[in-house]
Amino acid sequence: MILWFTIAQVGVAVAAGLLCLILGFAGRRPSDLSVGALGLVEVLLLTQIVVAIVAPLAGNPPTGSLLEFWVYLVSAALLPPAAVVWALLERSRWSTVIMGVAALAVAVMVWRMHAIWTVQVA
After folding, report:
1. For position 81, which CATH number holds?
2. Which residues constitute the domain of residue 13?
3. How far apart are the C-alpha atoms of 34 and 16, rounded to whole Å?
4. Which residues are CB-contacts of 46 (< 8 A; sequence separation ≥ 6)?
5. Measured distance CA(67)–CA(116) in Å, rounded
6. Closest Cα partner for 38 from 6, 9, 10, 80?
7. What's the confidence (pLDDT) of residue 122?
8. Closest alpha carbon to 33 in 6, 46, 15, 9
């Protein structure tokens, strides 16, 4: 993984999560703003999938468990669409909060993926 891209992903996911939490606790239902924020998180995750495929070919192989990394990545990529589907099916303020929690979970998972990719095997 690339450090600056990881930091960008975590920053965007945290910002999207906080935005959705604030909107949800303020009583706002899912809107283009909250759904779009999760859409941006998903686009970055799909880009991370491409990076994870190309990086080993470019000389940046993972030093941690490849299976664990991919399980995290696939799980993280499924969270935003699942949260958005939930939000669109149940249009309440709490579904906006759920989108925020999903975005914050993605931020943690991306940071963990970076740790798995760069762990030093002694």
Report:
1. 1.20.120
2. 3-118
3. 7
4. 77
5. 10
6. 80
7. 53
8. 15
Contact 55, 116 (CB under 8 A): no
Q: DSSP states of 5-37 as a string?
A: HHHHHHHHHHHHHHHHHHHHHTTPPP-HHHHHH
Question: Looking up tokens 């945290």, which residue turns up?
Answer: 14
Residues 81-118: pLDDT tens digits?
999 999 989 888 899 999 999 999 999 999 999 999 98
| Residue pLDDT, tens place only, 8-67 | 999 999 999 999 999 999 999 999 999 999 999 999 999 999 999 999 899 888 888 889
Q: How many domains does the chain have?
A: 1
In angstroms, the CA 84 to CA 32 distance is 11
